Amino acid sequence: MSSVAVLTQESFNEHRSGLRPEKGEEEDALPTYKDAFPPLPEKAASPEGTQETTNAWTSKIRPLKSSVITQVFHVPLEERKYKDLNQFGEGDQAKVCVDIMHKTGAHLELSLAKDQGLSIMVSGKLDAVMKARKEIVSRLQTQASATVAIPKEHHRFVIGKNGEKLQELELKTATKIQIPRPDDTSNQIKISGTKEGLEKAKHEILLISAEQDKRAVERVNIDKVYHPFLTGAFNKLVGEMMQETGARINVPPPSVNKTEIVITGEKEQVALAVTLIKKVYEEKANSYTISSVSAPSWLHRFIIGKKGQNLAKITQQMPKVYIPMTFMLLSTFTLKVNRMDFTEISVDPKFHRHLIGKGGVNINRIKELHKVTVRIPPDNEKSTVIRIEGDPQGVQEAKKELLELTTRMENERTKDLIIEQRFHRAIIGQKGEKIKEVRDKFPEVIINFPDPAQKSDIVQLRGPRNEVEKCAKFMQKIVAEMVENGFCLSVPIFKQFHRNIIGKGGSNIKKIREETSTKIDLPAENSNSEMIVITGKKANCEVARSRILAIQKELANITEIEVSIPSKLHNSLIGSKGRFVRSIMEECGGVHIHFPTEGSGIDKVTIRGPAEEVEKAKQQLLALAEEKQTKSQTAELRAKPEYHKFLIGKGGGNIRKVRDSTGARIIFPTAEDKDQELITVVGTEEAVRDAQKELEELIKSLDNVVEDNMIVDPKHHRYFVARRGQVLRDLADEYGGVMVSFPRTGTQSDKVTLKGAKECVEAAKKRMLEIVEDLDAQVIIECVITQKFHRSIMGPKGSRIQQITRDHNVQIKFPEREDPQAPPAEALIQENGEADAGDVKEPVDPNAPKKCDVIVISGRKERCEAAVEALKALVPVTIEVEVPFDLHRYIIGQKGSGIRKMMDEFEVNIQVPAPEQQSDKISITGLANHLDRAKEGLLERVKELQADQEDRALRSFKLTITVDPKYHPKIIGRKGAIITTIRTEHDVNIQFPEKNDENQDQITITGYEHKAIAARDAIQALVDELEEMISEDITLDSRVHARIIGARGKGIRKIMDEFKVDLRFPQSGAADPNLVTVTGRPELVDEAIDHLLNLEEEYIADAVENETKMAYTRPHGGSAAGMDEQRGPSKGFVVREAPWTTGNEKAPDMSSSEDFPSFGAPVATKSSPWGPKRF
């Protein structure tokens, strides 16, 4: 039979009351006052009467000091750099302060004193404050300078060790101190800074000098062998002497072969130190002997020990014995020999560097591990013997490990990778970063690159077979990527268009590089090459080439045609090293002829360049191809390089005659060709024979050297020999190296000698007569142009003037610039009211041009006149254009970008009047032929801006719509979705009222009139729809609200989206926590309410069930209250044997701030005495 115990609420309360202690027991359980509040330990009385604490409570605590300090500096008004009182806290002064704060990390606050002086409060760490102070003094305060003279030998004490003393002085005084160099004999030290700083720095320097004046220096010569007895072991003896005397004693180290000992310090200290040194010397002079012991040289380093440890140990045991490196006691040698051993092993030299490892890592590890020395012979010895020395056991272990390493290396595989040398540097990377990544990935593989000087493509891999194979595949993959990205394409672009392809500040070329991911290299400015090299992926290179060619095509009348020539003739047309095709390109104005890749089988040849020259090159190319097909012949003949220009003739006249008469093509060597004498003749057999005959006759005649004379007026001699004989050099180049000799200066002879080939001499003579005739007919014309325009006329690097001198064959000389600082001409000096008759000067014509405005042109009259016109055409002209003032800021653009673009485009200067002038006139300055284009461009821009203004006016139409504020959230929508859609759809701006606006029901719409009306209609439609909605309140048990709302509102959003209604649940603390409001169209509201009530019915059952379960896990509310009543009110914290219960003391009042003081009140933020921060 079984029984069941039922636990009722009453029995449970009885049970709990039985567990409570009785009253007596409770009192015994209370803690005593001393247990609850143990007293602090008492201080024991010390002999002196002071009390010393003995525990952690009363141990001395070091006072904490703030690491942040604050200093205030004052800069008087007269010493301020920036005195503009209207810009205090702004402008350059503020920028300087911000820069100082960034540099030093200190915080600065500025204020103005009544005397307009500047007060600066600096806060921060000590070093930051000192640095900031130095910066403030140098950048915000005017600087003064002074010099101070001290003896030259004291300068080094001012500088201090490593310049530390000098830096400290400069920081302390906020000055800059300049000390003359050691090789400078001057004793003047220059100080620059503020007046206050100068005085401080002077005082400090003079103090240092005064200290040094009290010091003395003494030099004592003592034989080197006695120095160790003076210094003692570890310099102990000399240290004791210095401590005793206070002087500094400098004994030269053993490695320095000097006997002089230097003593410095106060005079009395130095004298005492000298006495002590001499005393030690006299004691040791006659009391030492020398004993020497021989030992093998390889043992010396072991006897000495690491950093001399063994020697030090022996000298400590026998302090009266001095042991140089060449001396040692016999017993020590014997001991060392007994403990040392060595062995030699033979290893193939090719493994030596692998045994050593990178940076000696392998061999150093073996040495340290086995305490041995390993000598591996250098490469130049070509020896296989490796010597191991040290402890016998260590030697054997090291030998075993080295042999194991060698065996392993002999079993390793070596693989040679063929990688083009041009990729080696890219694979290695900057400072070896990329190859380090490969080595880290394959640590067991040794990768060796050939020396760059060897021009080898072989990269050697060595290591375990599998690892070597993996490494080889990885590196081949890297090379494949480089090959793909290393495709190279050369694009011929006419030299004059290179700067357009680069663009202003490199903008064009940078854009092409970034967008095509290619590397684009242009030839140097002084190079004759026209090739632009593009490197990267093939497809990207093609795109970059197309874009570069498009720029060239836009800038010039460049055409491109294709000519069909059988591919079998291409090589013969190109010629050896491209000589044939190059000669055609040069003759036809530098056109570009592109042949397809050899072996491609393509017949099309591309010719690109100016239209006329392209057609000319086409004809020549087709003619040459026809000749090749009719079995053309090639002949070669030789002529001195100096004859080539004469054979070609001026403008190619001579060679053209030969070509026209014979039909053969004659090709001369270029500057790049190695053989500069070889001339090639190409054509039919007959044409080649005739051309060869004519050229041979010309060359033969040139070899026939003759001498001739001509008469040249001495006044013209200087023209020919000026500029180191430039004119004569040009004559020699043009006329087959003819030599022209002028008489010596001062002989007054007019006879000039010409020597060379007969035809060359005759041609040179004729040219010289033409030059003389030009010189005789030469006139000098003055062109007056105001000096301020001279730089503009000259152009960049004088390019415009050089062009005029070439075009008109004249000389142009610009005057010296007028010095604006030069004083005016002195007035006539009068004595006794009369001017000196000898000093009377001609009156100056006020209409006469200034010397600085006169440009002198020399040459033939008609040429000079043409040059004057050309110069005047380069004088900038200014015109004014009427532009409404309100458009000026739009023409200037953001940070001047708009006006700069126009100036660059039209090559003029555009001056916009200052805003204060309120002027409508804009000035354009530039060349006359540029002004019209610039004016048209400016007026076109004005039209665009006016059109924009009109458009802005149309877009500024405003209208308002009145909407009840309660509908505003609905119109805006969740996260502004609805209103954003209306704004985007109608392209308008919709502004809702602010919280503080009076008209809370006004919505403002801004935009085009028709669009604003459409937006208003859309909003009104929403309002109408909202007004049709109704709101109904229903009662839902608050216990199911959380379930209906769902996690993060998912449940309620789903209901609202499904039924197109709005639900409002009560907030916490609401009067009716069960009231829920449903808003929407009537039929939808009813459906939503039904759904909510169904959910309530479903969820309330779960809620009741949960409450029932919880009732068994917590005490009943009424019972708990009863228990509290039984217990009575809380007595707080109770203790036994308190002071106020045993004596007359009162119990402390817990509400009293006197009995229970607080630990402190919150500290208010400290306001700055200088006012709010300005930066």
Key words describing this protein structure:
single chain, alpha+beta, three-stranded antiparallel β-sheet, 44% helix, steroid metabolism, coiled coil, acetylation
What does this protein structure show overall?
β1 (44-45) and β2 (51-52) form a beta hairpin. By secondary structure, this protein is α+β, with helices and mostly antiparallel strands. The protein contains 45 helices and 43 strands. The chain is extended and about 145 Å long.
In short:
The chain is of the alpha+beta class and about 1200 residues long.
Averaging pLDDT over every residue, what do you get? 77
Looking at how many chains there are and whether they match, the oligomeric state comes to single chain
What's the β-strand tally? 43
Tally the helices: what do you get? Answer: 45
Q: Strand sequence of the main sheet, in spatial order?
A: 3-5-4
Helix content range: 40-55%
State the secondary-structure class: alpha+beta
Spatial gap, N to C terminus: 93 Å
Q: Which value, in Å, is the CA radius of gyration? A: 52 Å
Strand content: 15-25%
Uncertain segments are 1-9, 14-23, 43-60, 325-337, 825-841, 1117-1127, 1163-1169
**Biggest sheet layout:** 3 strands, antiparallel
Net shape: extended
